[in-house]
Amino acid sequence: MYDVKNWIAGQEADGSGTTQEIVDPATGQQVGTLHLGDTATVDRAVQTAREAQKDWGLSSLSKRTQILYRMWQLMIEHTDEIAGVITREHGKTIADAKGEIARGLETLEFATSITQDLKGEFSANVSTGVDAHTMRQPLGVVAGITPFNFPAMVPFWMHPIAIATGNAFILKPSERDPSASSIVARLYQEAGLPDGVFQVVQGGKEVVDALCTHQGISAVSFVGSTPIAKHVHDTAAATGKRVQALGGANNHAVVMPDANVEFAAAQIASGAFGSAGERCMAVPVAVTVGDVHEKFLEAIKAEAEKMVVGPGSDPATDMPPVITPDARERVIRMTDEAEQAGATVVVDGRGLVVEGHENGNFVGPVVLTDVPRDHDTYTQEVFGPMLVVMRVDNFDEALELVNSSPFGNGTAIFTGSGHYARRYQEEVQVGMIGINVPIPTPVGYYSFGGWKDSLFGEYHAHGPEAVRFYTRQKAVTTRWPHQDEHLESSMSFPTHD
Fold first, then answer.
1. What pLDDT, in 10s, does the model give residues 87-137?
2. Residues in Cβ contact with 352 at an 8 Å cutoff, skipping those fewer than 6 apart
């Protein structure tokens, strides 16, 4: 048993006095206690951040990058520690936890190159004796609100770039798996980051709303479900904040008749069932085109049935538990409802029991076909280990089906045809596309984000768009006449003569 608290002004801090259990999804047992913050905690963090940011925003780029380099090394050294708490609190396998840490470090590596990304532009003699240049400056205090499914990677999409560009950052992690962020706060301090530049406030809706409405915060980043993304966007934008809010998804993978079916099935199984399907870039829908349907069903059934389901701490585990009992019941309920609506259950994970972990949140892989197109099991984000296989006759029908989704986060096509691959990437209405790649999450030096109901706000996460999100541009026009030079003034609009 352990305590997880807020991190304010370089040390652990109590919050509202309210606590919440931290539960291991593999056992259903409490492993720790989370001390929740409240509106007053947020205000204390903001005031501390504002003071710290004054000096940090004026610090040299060299100092910032040196600290970020040290942070990168510390994260490498503490990967096992962080992965261990992620597995204990989230449930995912150790290998998956280490994978998300590695992907998060891509953004930290990108942030160490901030000396290049903050270079402005310069033009000499835009008018006689007049020069022009641009510069980017930090916003001030910014906040990030992150989900349970990637307690290390998603926060790293935000805070390294925010800090590198001169801002102070306040993180509100998920209350289900909060420990990773506490370790990160400690490592930032060890790396030499001034106290107050990175802080953590634990909590639920009260803390979220306080961050969205506090007048001392200039921008809010969010990753989570679409309804909450819209709430965060609308609430924060109403107070004049810059907002990037990434919402949910219902990603489709199209399997063409010329695809390598065994390869496609193995890749889609990884996308559908990896991390128990609790990824916004998971693959909950496969779309088979033409006569490949039956062959694909046979292949995906074989892949699903060989999945080893168990605790994430077991190296033999392929698929861990879902995060809560409610998440488990949602998968079971939606499978029941789909079957009642006429769907065929190809692989049934509802009755799974993991020996020795009978109280864990385990459910086996589920594969469904013949699901009605208007049924919730197809149209909604399940966020669990469920794959719905839809059948269409041709490529155009597949494209229409994908584009009819209200979500536009990620998608993939499996094909040997450059013609269809190129058409798909040009015509599909989705922000991130994989060609024979099931989870097309961009590397850290590109930006991450979807279309439609998967994104609220203008800016995508990490990469070049994050630099623009966390900074404001100034355009400066200068003239330095000699003291003895006489210049006539004019009342007309200035020209470039």
1. 999 999 999 999 999 999 999 999 999 999 999 999 999 988 899 999 999
2. 309, 362, 363, 364
Please tell me the predicted confidence (pLDDT) of residue 497. Answer: 62
Find, among 337, 139, 335, 393, the residue nearest to 242 by Cα.
139
Q: Which residues are catalytic?
A: 280
Reading the block at residue 98, the tokens are: 């280490």
Buried b (16+ CB within 10 A) or exposed e, 37-72: bbbebbebbbbbbeebbeebbeeebeebbebbebbb
User: Alpha-carbon distance 59 to 165, whole Å?
Assistant: 10
Q: What's the helix, strand, coil split of the chain in %, to 5?
A: 40, 25, 40
Q: What angle do CA 45, 49, 52 make, to 5 degrees?
A: 140
CB-count burial class (<10 Å; 0-12, 13-18, 19+) for 133: middle
Shortest CA distance to 451 belongs to which of 421, 411, 414, 420?
411
CB 450 within 8 A of CB 432: yes
Cβ neighbours of residue 179 under 8 Å, at least 6 residues apart? Answer: 2, 4, 22, 32, 85, 88, 89, 151
